[in-house]
Amino acid sequence: MKRDYAVIGLGRFGGSICRELSMEGMEVLVIDNDEDKINEYKNIASHAVIADATDEASLKELGIKNIDHVIVAIGDNIQASILTTVILTDLGIKKITVKAQNDYHEKILNKIGADNVVHPERDMGKRIAHNIISNNILDYLELSDDHSIVEVKAGEKMVGKTLIDLDIRANYGCNVVAIKQGKDINVSPAAEDVLVEEDVLIVIGSDKDISRFEKNLV
Ligand code: ATP
Ligand code: ATP
Ligand code: CA
């Protein structure tokens, strides 16, 4: 399925999105006001154009209106990121994803109508911090300000036990929503299933409860 994407700003983040989308066979238009960046990506993206994204006329000329999903990956220049996002929302772009540089930037982007605001440095830092707590914590995903999902490998405290034995819900207030075994995923784990090595539990709960669960059981 081919869809049209545009990536504005070719720093490490935008550049990586462009490479991955192109590798997946997607049509990608990239825009940057730095000529060197455009030269670097002209053989990777389907179209690479030097333009200032804060200039509405230039964006219009590039036919940005016909693109379903635009990713704004201008980092340090927060003003340019905000201006670009306002122009794109005014033009009625269907989906706009924007990289936020800090929490205030994120707030503004949400207010002006960005559909999806990402904060990769902060989020990756959090995920890696949880992995540092234990090698068995494979992933960590924020659901809201105070709820998260963690993916944990069954360690020595879990292998050979059932969910009843561990009583995760009563002891930690968390719910095991699924158990992954290799490629299989069991979305309704039974209380008497015995956990084996390499099982991966997907656990949902409040941050406080998940933190207790991580400290005691993982
Ligand atoms: P990284 O992802 O590497 O951390 P960053 O988020 O720090 O990058 P910057 O290097 O600040 O991002 O900017 C990303 C790109 O956005 C740069 O290549 C820059 O030339 C481009 N850029 C900045 N302002 C504009 C603009 N007004 N129009 C088009 N491109 C712009
Ligand atoms: P981000 O994750 O926000 O993109 P970055 O990778 O661009 O950050 P910098 O802002 O360059 O990283 O540096 C990160 C931090 O490391 C800064 O707070 C800086 O003060 C600190 N730092 C840089 N060099 C040293 C050093 N030699 N000793 C101690 N701290 C340092
Ligand atoms: Ca940066």
UniProtKB/TrEMBL annotation:
GO biological process: potassium ion transport
Every RCK N-terminal domain range: 2-118
One family name in Pfam for this protein: TrkA_C
Organism: Oceanobacillus picturae
PANTHER family: KTR SYSTEM POTASSIUM UPTAKE PROTEIN C (PTHR43833:SF7), POTASSIUM CHANNEL PROTEIN 2-RELATED-RELATED (PTHR43833)
InterPro entries: NAD(P)-bd_dom_sf, RCK_C, RCK_C_sf, RCK_N, Trk_Ktr_HKT_K-transport
Domain spans labelled RCK C-terminal: 135-218
Protein name in the entry: Ktr system potassium uptake protein A
GO MF term (any one): monoatomic cation transmembrane transporter activity
SUPFAM superfamilies found in the cross-reference section: NAD(P)-binding Rossmann-fold domains (SSF51735), TrkA C-terminal domain-like (SSF116726)
Gene designation per UniProt: ktrA
Source lineage: Bacteria, Bacillati, Bacillota, Bacilli, Bacillales
